[in-house]
Amino acid sequence: MSNLNDHLKSAAPFSETEREAVYRAIFSRRDVRSQFTERHIEEHILMRLLTAAHHAPSVGFMQPWNFIVIADRDIKGRMRTAFDRANAEAVKMFPEDRRTPYSALKLQGITEAPVNLCITCDRSRGGPVVLGRTHAPDMDLYSTVCAVQNLWLAARAEGIGVGWVSIFREADVRQVLNLPPEVIPVAYLCLGYVDVLYDMPELAVKGWGQRLPLDDLVFRDGWGLTLKK
Amino acid sequence: MSNLNDHLKSAAPFSETEREAVYRAIFSRRDVRSQFTERHIEEHILMRLLTAAHHAPSVGFMQPWNFIVIADRDIKGRMRTAFDRANAEAVKMFPEDRRTPYSALKLQGITEAPVNLCITCDRSRGGPVVLGRTHAPDMDLYSTVCAVQNLWLAARAEGIGVGWVSIFREADVRQVLNLPPEVIPVAYLCLGYVDVLYDMPELAVKGWGQRLPLDDLVFRDGWGLTLKK
User: Please, which residues 110-149 of chain B have a Cβ atom closer than 8 Å to chain A?
Assistant: First the structure.
């Protein structure tokens, strides 16, 4: 084993320009359903995004993710059919006064997006005992979500929009993508270059919901306790 | 409702400098246990990090998260005790030949970090039916993890290290932080300024595990299918 200290490097704050770039990615990232252009995503750009995802934190360095890149029109078509079936079930779950506004929302861009990407979690990776997962078995799923968010922010910087589609019966996703039982489909993403994005979440633009005040969500030293002023 | 198109703004790729900053945050982010300095985290910097977290994607714009900021020494001490109890259980779960290396790892910096932060998920927020959660009930937990990763990357840009501690009995976390039953403690994070970081994951530096080759994790159009070359 090499000297540990050889691996410790200076970790200064970023320059103001660099820091602003990180915040711009975070604040201008959107969940895209309608703005995809037809422009092809080059393989080396796609691999940059997957490399970003692969550098997410993972519990016990488990790296439980796989990346299923979907470009095939037939597979996309079957996923679109799976979405339509689940969404027809979803609309009926809402109170009557929400069904019309719900149905007016576009909630996926599966066939328009040049690339679909399923990020999965292999719950068996790393064997029966994984460091950090001994008391929190879902940490592998959470690690996989960190990979999703890394990719989403990198995509924003590349001018690529990402939409997360979650309205599927899991059994349909498993069947179309031929997933083994120990593998969970954590995120089904649609990717494509965008020329425009909304300046706030689409569900806010369309009046479905609004951003909560941050101050209401911050507690100090325990649930429900606010800052003494 | 305002004209939807008024909210569509140009979304060009970032400049090369900006893009590199986003990737630098992603690639140089570390799970920190030992490098925290005592430097105080100013309130406005902390709020910048929480604002970044609050701009994560959330299913149906549910925003299920709360942020419990912990500075109190007594609360930190109780969390440290909870960690020690769980970690004593954890070590016994490993095969005998892994117990000594496991015990040599430092897996938390609870009392050294100036700020601890518990990011929770309120599963009841948004009522009984949430858009996008109808078929995937764990999407609220995944949204909360996206908030964690946003904060982690923003912190890197600010020169602040973050460590995610997952070795607790959940009941202990609930008791110390007084969480209501519908609220899940998704992530317990330690935050503090750092002067140095490892140039690769600490578990790789210390020989616990190594990064998997990305190419082995990428499939095309279905599980197990690799790119035709």
Answer: 120, 126, 129, 131-136, 138-139, 141-142, 145-146, 148-149
